[in-house]
TrEMBL record:
Enzyme's top EC category: transferase
InterPro entries registered for this protein in UniProt: Aminotransferase_I/II_large, Asp_trans, NHTrfase_class1_PyrdxlP-BS, PyrdxlP-dep_Trfase, PyrdxlP-dep_Trfase_major, PyrdxlP-dep_Trfase_small
Keywords linked to the UniProt accession: Aminotransferase, Pyridoxal phosphate, Transferase
Record note on quaternary structure: Homodimer.
Superkingdom of this protein's organism: Bacteria
A Pfam family annotated for this UniProt entry: Aminotran_1_2
Phylogenetic lineage: Bacteria, Pseudomonadati, Pseudomonadota, Alphaproteobacteria, Rhodobacterales
CDD domains reported in the protein's UniProt record: AAT_like
GO terms for cellular component: cytosol
Cofactors that this protein relies on: pyridoxal 5'-phosphate
This protein's name: Aminotransferase
Domain Aminotransferase class I/classII large: 27-387
Coiled coil: none
EC number: 2.6.1.-
Length: 393
């Protein structure tokens, strides 16, 4: 029977990791998968995470099951971090999931349970795995304009015009901050027009929040999510992989913001049911690290400080890349790099130019010309800038 299976396309982002490893060149540069790296190219365990792990090791007395929704302390720590005072806690259902991807998957499944015929609107472009999961689930998908390839910024009017086509009961996927793959986020005024439009249409916003704290600050990066959640029902998929640096621990949370407490309870039962069908209990270790860090004033302050160092470092790399390109080209046409937020920027290169940079300079980026800014350092910024210019950008 196994021979009845069809071959599956390789994940474009993950297969880059293998291609990079196989490249024997000394000076190769990995700007592929979205993993934070410091100036030495390491992905460190954050200080507060290490301290929390020590504490858990000392204090944990059992490894028995928690609850289907995960340890409640995790949601109780993460919901206020994301939502602030925008929604009463009792109106929020939440389950721990295996990473942000698990939350995205459970969110799509919840939409399918509520309304199997719902159309899920996705930004063009979006994280390719969104599309892959939706296809796997057999859900109806429609794209809406998001990114203007000429300005390398959000196409606000195009987005709002396309979303006029949304009908009541559709779901609209949004990136809460630090859009992946482009780095282009809507302006606050655009967010508020978008929130009004979706409310008017009776659509369900589904916010993917994987890079909280990587854009402007923990508070500012949560602002759009809070505005939407404050206005009515929505789903939010939160990842702790990047901002806590606990990628392999798979710590994510799916929240369902309801209009009232009774509906939140109903959503909670359904989310726990979904966890049970898919994997029973979600992983606990990463979630416990997060609730330990957020629940201790000192650890939390240290985590926030280190997150800010990481954010400032990426911003500095953006600025030095833009400055180097300004110097080389005598123009400011690459200044969009400093307006993009978070870990990624789409450079606007053609697939041929992306290939040329890989072939001639050993620079690896996703085929749509998305770079992971954190993959750069002071030595490699000029190398990338030179490669971009040589490739004819
Ligand atoms: C990325 O977009 O590079 C990250 O979200 C990692 C992944 O799983 O694709």
């Amino acid at each position: 029977m196994l021979d009845q299976l069809k071959d599956q396309p390789a994940d474009k982002i993950l297969s880059l990791m293998a291609a990079f490893r196989a490249d024997p060149r000394e000076g190769k540069i990995d700007l592929g998968v979205g993993v934070y790296k410091d100036a030495e190219g390491r992905t460190p365990v954050m200080r507060a995470v290490r301290a929390a792990e020590k504490r858990i090791w000392d204090e944990e007395t059992t490894k028995t099951y928690t609850a289907l929704a995960g340890d409640p302390a995790f949601a109780d720590a993460l919901v206020p971090l994301v939502l602030g005072p925008s929604v009463p806690r009792a109106n929020v259902a939440a389950v721990a999931t295996p990473g942000g991807t698990g939350a995205v998957r459970q969110g799509f499944e919840l939409i399918r349970m509520m309304r199997p015929e719902a159309t899920v609107w996705v930004p063009e472009p979006t994280w390719p795995n969104h599309l892959s999961i939706l296809k796997h689930l057999g859900m109806t998908v429609k794209g809406y304009r998001y990114f203007d390839g000429s300005t390398l910024a959000v196409d606000a009017e195009g987005m709002l015009a396309d979303l006029q086509g949304v009908t009541s009961g559709d779901a609209v996927l949004l990136h809460g901050c630090c859009h992946n793959p482009t780095g282009a986020d809507p302006e606050p005024a655009t967010w508020s027009r978008l929130a009004d439009l979706l409310r008017e249409k009776g659509a369900l916003p589904f916010i993917d929040l994987a890079y909280l704290g990587f854009g402007d600050s923990l508070e500012l990066d949560a602002a759009a999510t809070r505005m939407i959640a404050g206005g009515g029902e929505c789903l939010i998929a939160v990842s702790c992989s990047k901002n806590f640096g606990i990628y392999r621990e798979r710590a994510g949370l799916l929240m369902a913001v309801a209009r009232d407490e009774a509906t939140a309870k109903l959503a909670q039962v359904n989310l726990a049911y979904l966890n049970r069908q898919n994997y029973s209990f979600p992983p606990d270790h990463g979630a416990r690290v997060v609730s330990t860090v957020l629940g201790d004033a000192d650890l939390r302050a240290d985590w926030e400080a280190e997150l800010e160092e990481i954010r400032a470092g990426m911003l500095g790399l953006r600025e030095s890349l833009a400055a180097e390109l300004r110097r080389l080209t005598n123009s400011d046409r690459f200044d969009f790099l400093t307006r993009h937020k978070g870990m990624f920027s789409r450079l606007g290169a053609t697939p041929e130019q992306v290939e040329a940079m890989r072939r001639d300079h050993g620079i690896y980026m996703v085929g749509d010309s998305r770079i992971n800014v954190a993959g750069l350092n002071a030595r490699t910024v000029p190398v990338l800038a030179k490669a971009m210019v040589e490739a004819g950008l």
